[in-house]
Write a structure and sequence with these properties.
heterodimer, A: alpha+beta, Translation Initiation Factor IF3, 2 helices, 4 strands, 27% helix, 25% strand, globular, B: alpha/beta, Oxidized Rhodanese, domain 1, 2 domains, five-stranded parallel sheet, 10 helices
């Protein structure tokens, strides 16, 4: 599983915005791989959930522990996901 | 706790929720990337203002012209008496840029939702994907207030003057000249790195707390005065394209009440590409 930590750095003008980072990481996955997105910021989790729903991506885990939300996104059908990752 | 110089320009998320259906109020979400923000969900009744399309000139590098501002206000159903509440993506930078341009064109009652999207979502307040529509209005704007904006020539003229203060609100890495702009912002690059001579580096984010609300009056006063930026000087803020610096412009002008503050929106993407202008940079040890 690939993990991306959105709480690690937030100088978004020197790096892509949070959801853009997630979209790029997801697009690099191979079928069957999963992406874990971690962030202490509710706005990030909201955006990832909403984007996943609109894109037909299955969120197979959604937990909040010690103030950090962990979302796990599936890819291919064999992983419980909906198919090919959408672009960007 | 001391009150901000102009507390009327800030509203809380709770006040906003109480006024979602107030016809006197229009809520505007100003986004750089609507597909990562507004389109996924927004405050009920909020109208999308797309920073690239709506707040910029469609051809040249410039803020929106007066006629475009009037069309925007007409589209969102605002009159000159409407209370405009702004918030947006990227921690409210582009909402701050919109605030600055709306003030340039003389809209009287513009306010910030303190904390914006981050605080609204954190508090579990209502979110919708429904796009509202309002009856168009007729809006006549004022002539542009040039005192709120600085150009490259203005900045060149005040270099070395101690009655002016230049505030570079970029990250320390940008200020030191370690980076210009990342590949993600392809139109914001520069031929040279570093900063404008004499500028002090006070990154924009030092003015806010983790939930994106502004720090207290005392904290803000200490932050800027510690770097020699005081109300006795005229202050010019800049960043890379003028959006982070409009956030700091807002803090200095409206929260601290500094009398003369302008935003140099040409910023580093202009200065760092201009021929013959002086640049200051910390050189690495040999």
């Amino acid at each position: 599983m690939v993990t991306i930590d959105l709480g690690a750095a937030e100088e978004v003008c020197t790096e892509p915005g949070a959801l853009v980072q997630v979209k790029r990481a997801y697009a690099r996955l191979t079928s069957g791989e999963r992406l874990e997105v971690r962030s202490p910021i509710a706005e990030h989790a909201f955006a990832v959930r909403a984007w996943a729903r609109r894109s037909g991506i299955q969120v197979v885990a959604d937990d909040r522990v010690d103030g950090v939300t962990s979302l796990v996104l599936a890819t291919g059908p064999e992983d419980g996901g909906q198919g090919t990752p959408p672009p960007g | 706790m001391a009150e901000y110089a102009h507390p009327e320009v800030l509203v809380t998320t709770a006040w906003t929720e109480e006024h979602l259906k107030d016809p006197q109020v229009r809520i505007l979400e100003v986004d750089y990337d609507p597909s990562s923000a507004y389109e996924l969900g927004h405050i009920p009744g909020a109208v999308l203002v797309d920073w690239k399309q709506d707040i910029n000139h469609s051809l040249r590098r410039d803020i929106l012209p007066r006629e475009q501002f009037e069309r925007l206000m007409t589209r969102v159903g605002a009159t000159p008496d409407t209370t405009l509440l702004l918030y947006g993506d990227m921690r409210n930078w582009f909402a701050a840029f919109a605030f600055w341009t709306f003030k340039i064109y003389g809209h009287q009652d513009v306010r910030f939702i303190n904390g914006g999207r981050r605080k609204w979502i954190e508090e579990g307040r209502p979110i919708t994907e429904e796009v509202p529509s309002f009856s168009p209005t007729s809006y006549s704007a004022a002539e542009a207030n040039g005192g709120l904006r600085s150009f490259l020539t203005d900045v060149r003229q005040i270099l070395g003057r101690d009655d002016f203060s230049l505030v570079d609100v970029r990250s320390p890495a940008e200020y030191k000249g370690e980076i210009a702009a990342p590949p993600e912002y392809a139109t914001e690059g520069a031929q040279r790195t570093g900063h404008i001579p004499g500028a002090v580096n006070i990154p924009w984010a030092q003015a806010i707390q983790d939930d994106d609300t502004f720090k207290t009056m005392e904290q803000l006063r200490d932050l800027y005065s510690a770097q020699g930026v005081t109300s006795e000087q005229s202050v010019i803020t800049y960043c890379r394209i003028g959006e982070r610096s409009s956030h700091t412009w807002f803090v200095l002008k409206f929260l601290l009440g500094y009398p003369v503050v302008s935003n140099y929106d040409g910023s580093w993407s202009e200065w760092g590409n201009a021929v013959g202008v002086p640049v200051e940079k910390e050189l690495a040890a040999p």
